Amino acid sequence: MLQVQSPLNESEEALVKRVMDVGFSVHRALGPGFRERIYQRAFCLELDARGLSFESEKRIEVQYKHWSIPGQTVDLIVGGIVLVELKAVPKLRALHRRQVLSYLKTMNLRIGLVFNFNTELMKHGFRRVVN
Questions:
Q1: CA 6/CA 99 separation, integer angstroms
Q2: Nearest by Cα to 86 from 124, 117, 119
Q3: What is the CATH number of the domain that holds 25?
Q4: pLDDT for 18-70, tens place per residue?
């Protein structure tokens, strides 16, 4: 079996796993059916309860040539390392992955996690995106 090496170091990978645990915990407690805003609030409460530092609804500026374009917001940044995008949509699409990749590039981050809470099982609504 081929082992894929993570581009993250051990402490970064440990943080990613803790953030994944938060998402799975929130989904287990709430299940599907709520608006995205409810999941985001629950996610923040759970991050705080676990002592994880985070920024919610972080505003970013997109660089275009020599201009900065404001107006973009990302759901969460955990520990200054992990970008978290929360969804409550019928199905994750390639568009969601591309969106996270764009955020990662803009913010010079390497790892993003997408959680779609509108699934019966979170394993069907979770994606790990690496820049």
A1: 21
A2: 117
A3: 3.90.320.10
A4: 999 999 999 999 999 999 999 999 999 999 999 999 999 999 999 999 999 99
